[in-house]
């Protein structure tokens, strides 16, 4: 398929402004061919803007970017012929069958009729869509449409594949099958740029991660490096009601290396633990504080912890020039 040497995606000083507001600012990327970059951040952090620039759908205000060796501003046609894109919204045609959709995409990429049909059949089987291959896509379920859209993005075996929330709407089995397929593509030399809200997905797939917040890079490293950056073990306490969240946070404060993170929906309080902390001492502190704890657990740091510690949800003013 593709050589695993060289650079799949590179960017320097990449920025995009809309009047006085910078949606993206001073972003540098270096993604070796045959690797996976996880691009993480809250909604509005700049992920979609970055993807639009790298796929030639938007022009950068500042900086440069090259995809599969071609400049996104001056060599857009060459870039587009070498990439695949699966956006959050399915782009397949509901008035065509699944097989016809994939065959059409293959023909648009320059495959012969025979090769396009062969590739369509291969992907329909790989993504468990054979039984629905000759049904109109408008009759597909949301998960089936998502799988077909993903198949369409790899019909031409792209050198660089951009996936924006690729497993949204997929059941656990389909998600696992997709992960296996993506790993096969990477082993064959394809470069993948992935945005996802499933941080387990980034942890499993990404060789490198860039975290964006308010348009800027706030962290960059391997999943292991980033988890080490925010510390090791966590204590996670689940309480019976919202009224117990604040008392639980106060009780945990004496064992914490950083402020507690509370989740009112999940009714949890999580803190990074100081070395030598015993679970028994935490339970006693909660009891002394009158906290009705449903569960007390000790665990290693995850990418969720990285994400919560490095990003904010407040709406920024315009990024200073």
Helix-strand makeup class: alpha/beta
- CATH H-level superfamily title of the largest domain: P-loop containing nucleotide triphosphate hydrolases
Helix content percent band: 25-40%
Strand adjacency order, main sheet:
6-7-8-3-9-10
Q: What is the element string, with H for helices and E for strands?
A: EEEHEEHEHHHEHEHEEHEHEEHEH
Total number of strands = 14
Distance between the ends: 43 Å
Question: How many alpha or pi helices?
Answer: 11
Number of domains: 2
Task: State Rg.
Answer: 23 Å
Give me a quick take on this structure:
By secondary structure, the chain is an alpha/beta fold.
Could you explain how this protein is built, in words?
It is a single chain. The chain is 33% helix and 27% strand. Mean pLDDT is 88; it is low at 1-5 and 314-321. The longest helix is centred in the middle third of the chain and has 16 residues, at 172-187. It is an alpha/beta fold and 321 residues long. The strands form three sheets. The protein has a six-stranded mixed beta sheet with strand order 6-7-8-3-9-10, sandwiched between helices. The protein has a four-stranded antiparallel beta sheet with strand order 2-1-4-5.
Keywords:
321 residues; four-stranded antiparallel beta sheet; Rossmann fold; 11 helices; disordered C terminus; 14 strands; alpha/beta; 2 domains; disordered N terminus; Alpha-Beta Plaits
Question: Secondary-structure blueprint of this entry?
Answer:
Elements: E1 7-18, E2 21-32, E3 36-40, H1 47-54, E4 62-67, E5 70-71, H2 76-80, E6 83-86, H3 98-108, H4 113-126, H5 142-153, E7 160-164, H6 172-187, E8 191-195, H7 199-205, E9 208-213, E10 216-221, H8 223-229, E11 233-239, H9 245-252, E12 261-263, E13 268-272, H10 279-288, E14 293-300, H11 303-310
Parallel strand pairs: 3-8, 3-9, 6-7, 7-8
Antiparallel strand pairs: 1-2, 1-4, 4-5, 9-10, 11-13, 11-14, 12-13
Helix pairs in contact: 3-4, 9-10
């Amino acid at each position: 398929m593709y050589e695993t040497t060289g650079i799949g995606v590179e960017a320097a000083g990449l920025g995009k402004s809309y009047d006085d507001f910078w949606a993206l600012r001073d972003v540098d990327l270096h993604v070796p061919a045959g690797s996976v970059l996880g691009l993480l951040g809250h909604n509005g952090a700049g992920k979609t803007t970055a993807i639009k620039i790298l796929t030639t759908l938007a022009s950068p205000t500042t900086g440069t970017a090259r995809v599969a060796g071609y400049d996104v501003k001056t060599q857009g046609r060459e870039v587009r012929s070498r990439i695949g894109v699966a956006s959050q919204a399915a782009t397949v045609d509901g008035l065509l069958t699944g097989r016809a959709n994939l065959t059409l995409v293959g023909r648009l990429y320059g495959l012969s009729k025979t090769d396009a049909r062969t590739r369509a059949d291969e992907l329909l089987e790989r993504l468990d869509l054979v039984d629905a291959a000759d049904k109109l896509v408008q009759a597909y379920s949301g998960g089936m449409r998502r799988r077909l859209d993903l198949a369409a993005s790899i019909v031409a075996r792209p050198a660089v594949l951009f996936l924006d929330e690729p497993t949204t709407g997929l059941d656990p089995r389909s998600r696992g099958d997709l992960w296996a397929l993506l790993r096969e593509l990477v082993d064959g030399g394809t470069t993948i740029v992935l945005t996802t809200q499933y941080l387990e997905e980034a942890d499993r797939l990404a060789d490198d991660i860039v975290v964006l917040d308010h348009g800027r890079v706030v962290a960059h490293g391997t999943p292991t490096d980033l988890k080490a950056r925010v510390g090791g073990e966590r204590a996670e306490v689940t309480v019976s009601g919202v009224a117990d969240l604040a008392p639980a946070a106060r009780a945990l404060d004496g064992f914490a290396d950083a402020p507690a993170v509370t989740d009112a929906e999940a009714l949890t309080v999580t803190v990074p633990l100081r070395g030598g902390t015993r679970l028994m001492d935490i339970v006693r502190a909660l009891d002394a504080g009158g906290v009705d704890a449903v569960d007390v657990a000790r665990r290693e740091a995850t990418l969720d912890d990285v994400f919560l510690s490095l990003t904010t949800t407040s709406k920024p003013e315009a990024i200073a020039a």
